[in-house]
Each structure stands twice: as structure tokens, then as C-alpha cells.
């Protein structure tokens, strides 16, 4: 019985170390991606425009990263529109139209770098 308790204790100790390593790696990944800006809600393939629902503000000139299951690239925001009107900045909660340089998919995440 004592041997079983020793084994359980060793397994728990190892599990704590593994969890710590995973948490550290997760923090690194979050730092690499930047701050989450929003997500893609629509993509118009013929014109290469994505609609992004913003979780925080965005300005023309900022660099964003779009990341999804098969998408991962960065681009500078050259211009954006809200309701077909060109804007220089957008606020949290706005849905913006953005010309994207590569195909994106609904639910891809957008990060500001």
C-alpha cells in the first residue's frame, strides 16, 4: 500500500511540472500573437474584403495578424470602412470592412501587433 502512495505522489508531482510547462508555453503563444483585436465574421472572396467585429479600437496604420486553422499572416491596415464610409479609426464593437491580402475564414482571430 505504501508503494502505491509513493507512486501516486510521484505522478502528481510530475503532473504539476507538466502543467507549469504548458502554462508557460501558453503565455509565450499569447505574447507572440499580440493583443486580440476581434474576429472575422464575413469574407467576400470576389473582392477580397473581410468584415471584422472589433473587441477593441483600431487605427489606420496599425499592423494586424490574422490567425486561424489554415490562416496566419500579418498586414498593415491601409484603409478601412464602416457602412461603406472610409474611416481613420474604429472603436470597440464596430464591424469594419478591410481589404485583406490573403484569403481568410469566418472565426479567424485578428490580433494587433
Kindly describe this structure:
- The protein starts with a helix and ends with a strand.
- A hairpin with a 2-residue loop joins strand 6 and strand 7 (85-87).
- The model has no long low-confidence stretch (mean pLDDT 89).
- The protein is elongated and about 75 Å long.
- Strands 5-4-10-1-2-9 form a six-stranded antiparallel beta sheet. Strands 3-8 form a two-stranded antiparallel sheet. A two-stranded antiparallel ribbon has the order 6-7.
- It is an alpha+beta fold.
- It has two domains: 1-33; 35-112, Beta Barrel (Elongation Factor Tu (Ef-tu), domain 3).
- The protein has one helix at residues 2-33; strands spanning 35-44, 49-54, 58-59, 63-67, 72-76, 80-82, 85-87, 89-90, 95-99, 109-112.
How is this structure best summarized?
The chain contains 1 helix and 10 strands, in the order H-E-E-E-E-E-E-E-E-E-E. It has 113 residues and is an alpha+beta fold. The protein has 2 domains: 1-33; 35-112, Elongation Factor Tu (Ef-tu), domain 3 (Beta Barrel).
Domain count: 2
Widest beta sheet: strand line-up: 5-4-10-1-2-9
Nearest-angstrom radius of gyration? 21 Å
Query: Which superfamily, in CATH terms, is the homologous superfamily of the largest domain?
Result: Translation factors
Structural class: alpha+beta
In total, the number of strands is 10
Strand content: 35-45%
Q: How is the topology of this model organized?
A:
Layout: H1 2-33, E1 35-44, E2 49-54, E3 58-59, E4 63-67, E5 72-76, E6 80-82, E7 85-87, E8 89-90, E9 95-99, E10 109-112
Antiparallel strand pairs: 1-2, 1-10, 2-9, 3-8, 4-5, 4-10, 6-7
Amino acid at each position: 500500500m505504501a508503494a502505491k502512495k509513493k507512486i501516486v505522489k510521484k505522478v502528481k508531482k510530475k503532473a504539476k511540472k507538466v502543467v507549469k510547462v504548458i502554462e508557460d508555453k501558453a503565455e509565450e503563444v499569447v505574447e507572440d500573437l499580440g493583443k486580440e483585436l476581434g474576429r472575422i465574421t464575413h469574407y467576400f472572396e470576389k473582392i477580397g474584403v473581410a468584415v471584422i467585429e472589433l473587441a477593441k479600437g483600431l487605427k489606420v496604420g496599425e499592423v494586424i495578424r490574422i490567425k486561424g486553422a489554415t490562416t496566419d499572416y500579418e498586414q498593415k491596415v491601409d484603409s478601412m470602412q464602416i457602412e461603406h464610409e472610409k474611416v481613420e479609426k474604429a472603436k470597440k464593437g464596430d464591424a469594419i470592412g478591410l481589404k485583406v491580402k490573403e484569403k481568410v475564414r469566418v472565426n479567424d482571430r485578428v490580433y494587433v501587433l
